[in-house]
Amino acid sequence: MKAKKLQISDDASNQHLSVLLNASKAISEAADYATLLQALLTIIIKHAGAQRVFLIKSQGDSLILEARAQTNTNGVMVEHVHCEANWDDLPKSFISSAIQTKKLLYANVGQQSTPYDLDPYFQRFSVSTAICLPIIKQNQLIAVFYIELWEHDKLFSDEYLNVLTLLTAHAATTIEAARLQNAIDEVNQQRLKLERALRLADTSLALGEQISRTGSWRWELHNNTLVCSEEFCNILDLDPQRRTISFADFAACIHPEDKKSVLDRIRYAVQKETAINVEYRVLKADGSVLYLTGQGCPVFDSDKLVDYVGTVNDVTARRAAENALRVAQDDLARVCRITTIGQLTSSIAHEINQPLMSIVANAGAGLRWLHRAEPDLQQVSASLQSIATEGQRAGQIVQSLRTLTKNTKALLSKLDIHDVLKCIVAIARREIERRNVSLELHLDAKLSQIRGDMVQLQQVMLNLVMNAIEAMSEISNRPRVLTISTFTKEDQVIFIQVEDTGPGISDEIKDHLFDAFYTTKKDGMGMGLAICHSIVEMHGGELSAVLRQPVGSIFSFAIPLVKD
Ligand SMILES: Nc1ncnc2c1ncn2[C@@H]1O[C@H](COP(=O)(O)OP(=O)(O)O)[C@@H](O)[C@H]1O
Ligand SMILES: [Mg+2]
Fold first, then answer.
1. Ligand nearest, relative to CA of residue 511
2. What's the mean pLDDT when you consider all of the chain?
3. Which ligand 1 atom is at minimum distance from the Cα of 513?
4. What is the pLDDT of residue 291?
5. Residue among 365, 353, 503 nearest 430 (CA)
6. pLDDT attached to residue 1
7. Where is each Histidine kinase domain found (predicted)?
8. Residue 346 pLDDT more than 80?
9. What is the pLDDT of residue 41?
10. Ligand 1, atom 20, residue with closest C-alpha
């Protein structure tokens, strides 16, 4: 490698100065990195009359070909490529040497012998002169310019090299700034993308909340405020634009009748650092009432309870549907009761007729005692007493029929289950006799006070008794016996058992016994046992059916006893 020949034309200095000024202008005016590269490479290649100029950037351990300019018949073509440097297309030994020394390297490859003559690239292509100019900033290699001339009569002048050095020093700052700007732009693009994704997620969440009528919130315990979603504000009738409310604002939304219990439960959960689960109503400004459920999970920071996050659900529609279902179930239960009672009319008529006959007989007797020459007032009084007792007996039956057919809401009260059984036996007695069934009553339980709904329990007993009678109607080769018994267990629960000597329950029937509308009878409705099952469940028991030995079946359930 040798110093290059000087070929300075007369107006060379002016020309170089104008190149520098042009380059400076182009560099400072470049709107973006690509324009900057285009301007820089064009000036370098044109000014030297070179064939090829490469800008190779160092990136970590690798070299990246950033841009390439080539002179061809159409002029100068600049490409911004940004790919790994391809050593088939560049003199590796020459460029590596410049990178190592961080110094400008110049070689008249085609004209003198140089250390790079054996470089495969120089072997393949007839390059006349090559320059490699490292761009250094704060002693760090940022990039290299590789420039080559193909024409043997042309050389790089010293001025050109000086201009080049000045240009690259200037370019170093700009390339670095542009690179940083590029990086910033990329980060900004990423940020915009993320923001867009976030906005999209936010919109989807808001839409999801709106559709499912679910609001979300975060309760920051340190300042006692709730950061809440738009839907949360919508549900609670707050301004949807308000995203932060105080806990007191929230508490003010709760229906006055629910407020104390809800706040107590929340306070208890916070104290125990456990999940919040509450149900409450909200009175809206238009007077309507919403039914809400709220769930919250505690959030800890280094074992310290800091926040609660959770949701609020508007379950008003579900509640309305549940209520409608309950009303429908009540109506159905009533229809079933009336249907069963309809089957018992002759039995009931008989049951009422008996006291009426007795009243008539007693009245006759009383009158006779009164109309005697010497009226026996004691006997008259006894007859009147009997009339009153029998009247009450008839009245009670009528009363229990009225309650059984009325559509009343379930009313839990303390009652004697034996009274329920006796009442049902009274209503069904005649039917039992008519069907040739013998009744055995074993009301052995010493304690029989329970908490329950009289009408519902009567319905259970009526269904079980009627089923037992109906099951035995086909039996002709053995006695038809209906046994109703009660007994207690450890003074905690009372068992009520209805046994029959019918056909028993086959495996196939057993699986569907308590299903709604399951019946094996021609005129059956299949609702009796389904209703019994849910009533017994509501009373804290479970209705079960087993085979009776040697024949028949046993239906039984247990209800907790209440003590005085
Ligand atoms: N004591 C019983 N013995 C045998 N089978 C019974 C007995 N009680 C109920 N079953 C069976 O259970 C079915 C459902 O009873 P239920 O729900 O009261 O409806 P329904 O009496 O209208 O058929 C009956 O059709 C019958 O097949
Ligand atoms: Mg039935």
1. 1
2. 88
3. 12
4. 95
5. 353
6. 44
7. 347-563
8. no
9. 87
10. 526
Looking from the CA of residue 531, the nearest atom of ligand 1 is 17
Same fold, 12-184 and 213-314: yes
- Assigned architecture for domain 12-184: 2-Layer Sandwich (3.30)
Mean pLDDT of 173-181: 74
Ligand 1 atom 27 nearest Cα: 520
Question: Is residue 532 scored above 50 in pLDDT?
Answer: yes
**Which ligand has its closest atom nearest to the C-alpha of 529?**
1
Query: What is the pLDDT at residue 292?
Result: 96
In testing the pocket of ligand 1, which one of 467, 473, 535 has its CB within 8 Å of the most ligand atoms? Answer: 467
List ligand 1's pocket residues with C-beta within 6 A.
463, 467-468, 471, 500, 502, 505, 509, 513, 518-521, 524-530, 553
Q: What is the mean pLDDT of residues 394-420?
A: 83
Question: What's the gap in Å between 470 CA and the centre of ligand 1?
Answer: 8
The per-residue pLDDT for 111 is: 79
Average pLDDT of 211-233?
Answer: 93
Please state which of the four CATH numbers 3.30.450.20, 3.40.50.12780, 3.40.50.300, 3.30.1330.30 is assigned to the domain occupying 213-314.
Answer: 3.30.450.20
Q: Which CATH architecture has domain 325-560?
A: 2-Layer Sandwich (3.30)
Find the mean pLDDT for residues 69-80: 90
Question: In the structure encoding, which two tokens stand for residue 109, read together?
Answer: 């490859």
Question: What dihedral do alpha carbons 440, 444, 449, 452 form, nearest 10°?
Answer: -40
As a whole number of angstroms, the distance between CA 262 and CA 264 comes to: 5
Distance CA 169, CA 15 (A): 19
Q: Residue 2: its pLDDT value, please?
A: 42
Q: How far is the CA of 520 from the centre of ligand 1 (A)?
A: 7
DSSP-assigned beta bridge partners for residue 296: 276, 310
How far does residue 428's CA lie from ligand 1's centre (Å)?
A: 17
Q: Do the strands 544-547 and 129-137 form a parallel or antiparallel pair, or are they unpaired? A: unpaired
Domain ranges of the chain: 12-184, 213-314, 325-560
Q: Residue of the nearest CA to atom 19 in ligand 1?
A: 526
Residue 516 CA to residue 527 CA, distance in Å, equals 5
302-305 — which CB contacts under 8 Å span 24+ positions? 305/221, 305/270, 305/273
Q: How far is the CA of 523 from the centre of ligand 2 (A)?
A: 10
Give the pTM. Answer: 0.54
Q: How far is CA 308 from CA 224, 270, 493, in A?
A: 11, 9, 43
* Residue 10 pLDDT: 52
pLDDT average, residue stretch 282-311: 93
Q: What distance in Å separates the CA atoms of residue 207 and residue 201, rounded to the nearest whole number?
A: 10
Is the confidence at residue 160, as pLDDT, over 80? no
Tens of pLDDT along 8-18? 455 666 777 77
